[in-house]
Each structure stands twice: as structure tokens, then as C-alpha cells.
TrEMBL record:
Gene3D superfamilies: 1.20.80.10, Pleckstrin-homology domain (PH domain)/Phosphotyrosine-binding domain (PTB). Pathway: Lipid metabolism. InterPro entries: Acyl-CoA-binding_protein (IPR000582), Acyl-CoA-binding_sf (IPR035984), FERM/acyl-CoA-bd_prot_sf (IPR014352), MBOAT_fam (IPR004299), Oat_ACAT_DAG_ARE (IPR014371), PH-like_dom_sf (IPR011993), PH_domain (IPR001849). This is diacylglycerol O-acyltransferase. PANTHER family: DIACYLGLYCEROL O-ACYLTRANSFERASE 1, STEROL O-ACYLTRANSFERASE. GO terms for molecular function: diacylglycerol O-acyltransferase activity; fatty-acyl-CoA binding. GO terms for biological process: triglyceride biosynthetic process.
Length: 718
């Protein structure tokens, strides 16, 4: 039972609606007040998101401003104010308890429609008597009831046009030249339509999709988990449209990105409701064969202003995928020609590489067998940490024994490589695996040492064992799982995915094999002949000769390095992550766009960067060292490890890799100055690529190869 305030308010609304444009003569200001009070009484405070933009018209903005002036007024107070204002018009309205009880919601909506603009109050004058004296349905005959029903249905149909099932921001997937492009737009779901606008402020229609029965909507989870592209969105809303004969839209599927499953489900339900309102898909009218409704020669061809596709006046985003395909075709033809010329000039080096892999010497077998020692250090690390979880174990003794054990995990493989003088191609994988294991064990021991210190100062914890808290986390399963995870930083808990995508995993394995094959082909067929020529040259140490061979190696060495990056950081680490259900897969960022060298070193190898920050940079800062000194120590240690990874397998000690890494320090300062003085400049990016492609990789490869070939003259094998 409505209260007196609501009853009088509805009576006033009905009174104004019935007399609009006739004997209710009021000013435009009064009309604005009526509209604002009605909105405040029915919808509450005006929201900023509902404010019309500059394209909404002066009238709509004036109505919204009048509504906002009543912000904070209670709804009942607004109703009383509305009733008082109508009573003050002197048109004969007196508040009473008797109001029309038929179609109250329709009366309210009719009031909104009546005050849609400032000069349309006369639209309700024709139905004055009908609204004043509602018919008695019990006394109407069948024909009158049918007419009344049709009238009500027509009113509902008119009102449904203005209904919005859902509106908000979504990101739409579009195919571009470089792949998928995700753009955030403002979407609106109305009966029969999904409309896309440039933004909420700029209501420029970018896309209108007719919705009909038969449309399907699927909410798909996204496990990519990256910060860019599709990985930014946790769920996808995939709309599939039914096939129709209509030429209004050629779209068959739309993929939208949403931040939460609840929001995605709401969009799905709204789109399905709008599709039901859209009815059956339209069918193209059949035309008898041989007959046409109009002469096509009279059709207007030029209908609107349009810019050329390649013109700077073109505002729409264009796709240049065809040109990208052309560039790929030209690159493939050029590479094929170079391969043919290379094979005809130098012969097939792949056959020699295959022969080498099948003819290992005794020293090489020792290195292969030494790989079986690596799990021993993992088990010993676990046992030492397990002893450290007891209260009787000495903390200092545990740290010292663990230090010796972890150091031996890297020193023993390095000693075996140096003493056996095995082939660099055999020693390289062993030293790489030993280095990765060493970094993991350092993180494991360091983290548990900090947890042990906190555990010893805390009161005993009661309750069941918790595998994510010390000392329950120290288990053989935990350390083995950590060794399998694609990360160098140990922690007791990691983000995990719910299941393994087998098809996705199989595709990545195939991509890995293809990438490794390309890497071997380029190295053996394009780099090895040049390296052999440089090693056999009489003046191999001449600066001009070195410059010549360095420039020759620049492009193939860059291709090999890019294949290494893609195979290791994108494919192999993602394969490990998928197989172990590891959730955090940000192994690199967009390092190729770096305009400063320090940004490149932070972005291209996230696992190593995280290890250096956590176990080297922050401890140095906590020890009281400044930021500059701590960064220098980080680069120094990184340079030492780069030298170990190259010099130990090659059995040299020229420190080229170390010098190259330390040479990054002045280049970092230079690119920082350039970035500071020239904002948005790409000079730093050019410096990065030039120093990396010409001075860095090929020069180091050439110098190390000449050194190795000189030490193994007469018995050098490729």
C-alpha cells in the first residue's frame, strides 16, 4: 500500500501528463524544475557517467544540470516538492489520496517521455480524457479489449527502444598487420543491437551489430596471464552471429575481453536478451529470375566523402596484412637464394655437424657422464636444510656447510670442463645447466635461511603441517618441484593454473623443434664457414680483417640470437610452465622497444633480473651500500657469470664477455642522458641495436672462435 507522499506524487504526475500543452501553461524554467524533481524522486542523484556529451545537445545538458542541482535531496522530499510545484501552477490540482491505480509504472514512464524535450508537453493532450477516466475492463467487449491490448503493446514497444540491457567498457579483438590488436571501446546492448562507441565521452558510433535469435555467446577463460595483448583480460566474451541473407553486417564472430567472470557473464546474458528482442534473422526478398526491381545503371555510386586508403586523411584503422605477407615472401625467397649460393660455395655443413654428434671422444663422454652429478647437489642441499630445521643445529654451521655445497655445484662442473679440455659444444650445455642450478640453490638456501631466522624467534606454532610455511616447506618434493619450475627465485607458494593444455603444449613443442632446426641451419651454414675463414686467415688479428668478418657475421648471428631468445624464453619456459601448471609466465617484456640499455637488461630476461634484485641488489642496499654501488656490483657479478658461461667451455681466459658486459655501464649512462634530453626519442633504441648487432654478439663470437681455433690448431673439430 503506497504512502500518502507516493500517492500524491503519482496523482501530480498523472495530472501534468493529462493536461500537458492545453490548460497547463508554464514557463520553460518550470518545465526544467518538473523534470529535475521527477528524476530526483524516481532515480535519485544524477550520476556523472550519465551526463550528456557535447554531441548530446543543449536541451539534454540543461535537463541534466537541473537534475544535478537537486543532488542530496531525499526521494520523498523531491516528491513533495514536485506536488507543491504542480499545485502552485493554479490549474486546479489539489493533492488527494485518490489516484489512478491502473498502469502506474506506465504513468511514470509516460512522464519521462513527455518531458523528453522542453516543447513536447502537447504530445499527451490527445489522450487527456482517456487518462483521466480509465475504462472498466470488466465492461469492455472482446473487440475493445483487443484494441486496448494492442495499444498497450505498442506503448511497450516504443519504450523498449530506449531500454539498455548493459553498457560499459570492453576490449575488442581486431586482426592487424602484426597480429591481434585489442582496443578499449564503450559498448551498449539495446534490444536487437550491440553498439560500439569510441568512448563514453565521445559517442561516435564505431560499430553496430544487429542481434537476432540464434546468436550464441560463450564465456572463455584466458590463461595467457601476460600484461599486454589478450593476456591482460581474464575472460573472453565470444559472440557468434547466425548466418543471414542480410547485407547490413558481414560479421560472423566478435571477441571481447573482460576483467572478471561476473562481468563477462552479465554481458553474455544482456546480449542474449537483446538477441531475443531482435526476433528472427531477416531473409532477403526473393526476386524472380530475369526481373529486377530497378535498373542498376541508375544506382548512385558516389554517396559520401571518402579518403584514399593510404591517405593521411584516412581516420579508420587500416590493415596492411597483405604487405606483411609480401615482405615475408620476399624474405623467404632471398633466404632461399642465399642458402643455395652458400651450399654451392661451401658445401653442406649440416652433414659435418651430424658426423660430429656421432663421433664423440673419450673426454666428451666424461663431460656427458658428469651431468649425472648435478642431482647430487640438489639432494645434499635439501638434506642440509632439513637438518637446519631442528633446534639443535647450529645456524652458523648450517650456513657454512650450505655455502660450501652450493659453491661446489658450480665449481665442480667448471673444474671437470677445464681438466678434460673437452669440446666446447659438449661443455657448454653442462656449464649452462650447472649455472642455472647454482642460481636456484642460492635462492633456495638464502630464502630458507631468512625463514629460519624468523622461525627461531617466533613462538611454537600449533596445528596441522602447512607446506607453505617454514619448516614444513622443507621437503624433497618441494625442492624438486622448484627445480622444475621456470623460475630462479624460490618461494613457498606460487600462482598455479588448474590444468595442462595438452594441445597447446604439443604445438609449442613442435615450434621449439622448428626453431632449434632453423638456429642450427643458420649457424652451421652461414656462420661456421665465415668463422673458419677468419681463423685460417694469415692476418686474422688485423683490425680491418676483424671488421670485415664482424660485419659478415652481424645478420646471421642476430638471427641465431633471436632464435635462441624465442626458443628459450618464449617456448621452453612456457613449455615448462604449462607442464608444471606454473602461473606467472612473464619471462620477458618488450625489450625490443627499449630506448635505454638499463631498460633492456631489466626486460629481456625477467628470471635472472628478479634473482639479481632479490638476492644481490637488495642485500647490498640493506647493507648500507648506495644505489650506484649496488648496481655496479650487480653488473660486475653478471659480467663474471657471462664470462664463465663462455670462457669455461671454450677453455680460454681473454675476458671478452666480461669486458663487453662492463662496457654496458657507460652506454647505460649515455642512453639515460639521451632519453632525458630528447623525450620520446628513438636514438637510444638505435644505439642498443647497433651496439648489440655489430659490436656485441658477432665481435665476441669471432674473437672467441679465433682463440679456440688457435689453441686447437691441427685437431680442431666442427
Amino acid at each position: 500500500m503506497p504512502d500518502v507522499t507516493s500517492t500524491n506524487f503519482l496523482s501530480a504526475v498523472s495530472f501534468v501528463n493529462a493536461r500537458a500543452g492545453t490548460d497547463l501553461q508554464i514557463t520553460d524554467d518550470a518545465k526544467l524544475d518538473l523534470y529535475a524533481l521527477f528524476k530526483q524522486a524516481t532515480a535519485g542523484d544524477a550520476q556523472d557517467k550519465d551526463r550528456p556529451n557535447i554531441f548530446g545537445g543543449v536541451v539534454k545538458r540543461a535537463k541534466w544540470d537541473a537534475w544535478k542541482q537537486h543532488k542530496g535531496m531525499a526521494r520523498n522530499a523531491a516528491k513533495d516538492e514536485y506536488v507543491s510545484l504542480v499545485q502552485g501552477f493554479g490549474a486546479g490540482f489539489e493533492p488527494e489520496g485518490r489516484v489512478l491505480r491502473r498502469r502506474r509504472s506506465s504513468v511514470s514512464m509516460s512522464s519521462v517521455r513527455s518531458f523528453g524535450s522542453l516543447n513536447n508537453l502537447s504530445t499527451a493532450a490527445a489522450s487527456k480524457e482517456k487518462q483521466q477516466v480509465p475504462p472498466d475492463y470488466s465492461k469492455l467487449d472482446r473487440e475493445a479489449l483487443v484494441k486496448e491490448l494492442e495499444l498497450l503493446q505498442s506503448e511497450v514497444a516504443k519504450l523498449s527502444v530506449f531500454r539498455v540491457y548493459k553498457e560499459g567498457k570492453l576490449s575488442r579483438c581486431r586482426e592487424t598487420m602484426t597480429g591481434e590488436d585489442w582496443t578499449v571501446r564503450y559498448y551498449e546492448v539495446k534490444p536487437g543491437f550491440l553498439r560500439c562507441y569510441k568512448s563514453y565521452e565521445e559517442r561516435i558510433l564505431r560499430l553496430e551489430v544487429p542481434l537476432h535469435k540464434g546468436a550464441t555467446v560463450v564465456v572463455e577463460p584466458n590463461y595467457a596471464g601476460t600484461a599486454t595483448g589478450a593476456g591482460r583480460y581474464k575472460h573472453f566474451v565470444v559472440l557468434t552471429l547466425p548466418r543471414t541473407d542480410s547485407k547490413r553486417s558481414n560479421l560472423t564472430q566478435i571477441k571481447l575481453g573482460s576483467d572478471s567472470v561476473d562481468d563477462a557473464n552479465e554481458w553474455s546474458e544482456a546480449i542474449l536478451l537483446a538477441a531475443e528482442d531482435g526476433g528472427e534473422p531477416p531473409k532477403q526478398e526473393k526476386v524472380e529470375k530475369g526481373k529486377r526491381k530497378f535498373d542498376p545503371s541508375l544506382r548512385d555510386f558516389h554517396k559520401k566523402h571518402q579518403a584514399s586508403y593510404l591517405s593521411s586523411d584516412q581516420t579508420d584503422r587500416q590493415s596492411y596484412r597483405g604487405f606483411a605477407n609480401l615482405i615475408l615472401v620476399v624474405a623467404m625467397v632471398g633466404c632461399l637464394r642465399n642458402i643455395v649460393d652458400n651450399v654451392s660455395k661451401y658445401g653442406n655443413f649440416l652433414t659435418q655437424a651430424l658426423k660430429f654428434s656421432l663421433t664423440l671422444e673419450s673426454n666428451d663422454y666424461i663431460i656427458v657422464a658428469a651431468s649425472a652429478l648435478l642431482p647430487f647437489f640438489i639432494v645434499s642441499t635439501y638434506l642440509i636444510e632439513k637438518v637446519g630445521t631442528t633446534t639443535w643445529a647450529s645456524v652458523s654451521a648450517t650456513k657454512f656447510i650450505q655455502f660450501v655445497n652450493v659453491s661446489a655445484s658450480l665449481l665442480v662442473p667448471c673444474y671437470l670442463s677445464h681438466s678434460t679440455q673437452a669440446n666446447p659444444a659438449v661443455c657448454g650445455p653442462l656449464i649452462f645447466l650447472a649455472t642455472v642450478m647454482f642460481l636456484k640453490l642460492v635462492s633456495y638456501a638464502h630464502t630458507n635461511a631468512v625463514l629460519r631466522e624468523r622461525w627461531l624467534t617466533m613462538p611454537p606454532r600449533e596445528g596441522p603441517p602447512n607446506p607453505t610455511s617454514y619448516p614444513d616447506n622443507v621437503s624433497l618434493f618441494d625442492i624438486v618441484r622448484f627445480m622444475a619450475f621456470p623460475t630462479l627465485c624460490y618461494q613457498t607458494n606460487y600462482p598455479r593454473t588448474p590444468f595442462v593444455r595438452k594441445k597447446w603444449l604439443a604445438k609449442r613443442l613442435i615450434e621449439l623443434l622448428i626453431t632449434l632446426f632453423i638456429q642450427v641451419v643458420v649457424f652451421q651454414q652461414f656462420m661456421m664457414p665465415v668463422l673458419l675463414q677468419s681463423a685460417q686467415a694469415k692476418n686474422s688479428e688485423d683490425p680491418m680483417t676483424i671488421t670485415k668478418y664482424t660485419l659478415t657475421l652481424a645478420i646471421p648471428s642476430l638471427l641465431v640470437w633471436l632464435c635462441m631468445f624465442y626458443a628459450l624464453f618464449h617456448l621452453w619456459l612456457n613449455i615448462l610452465a604449462e607442464a608444471t601448471c606454473f602461473g606467472d609466465r612473464q619471462f620477458y617484456k618488450a625489450w625490443w622497444n627499449a630506448t635505454k640499455l638499463d631498460v633492456y637488461w631489466r626486460d629481456w630476461n625477467i628470471p635472472v633480473h628478479a634473482w639479481l634484485v632479490r638476492h644481490l641488489f637488495m642485500p647490498c642496499m640493506n647493507a648500507g651500500l648506495g644505489k650506484s654501488v649496488s648496481m655496479f656490483i650487480v653488473f660486475f657479478v653478471s659480467a663474471v657469470f657471462h664470462e664463465v658461461l663462455v670462457s669455461v667451455p671454450c677453455h680460454t681466459s681473454n675476458w671478452y664477455a666480461f669486458a663487453g658486459m662492463m662496457g654496458q655501464v657507460p652506454l647505460i649512462a649515455l642512453t639515460n642522458v639521451i632519453e632525458k634530453r630528447f623525450k620520446e626519442s628513438q636514438v637510444g633504441n638505435f644505439i642498443f641495436w647497433l651496439s648489440f648487432c655489430i659490436v656485441g654478439q658477432p665481435l665476441c663470437i669471432l674473437l672467441y672462435f679465433i682463440e679456440v681455433a688457435g689453441k686447437n690448431s691441427g685437431s680442431f673439430r666442427v
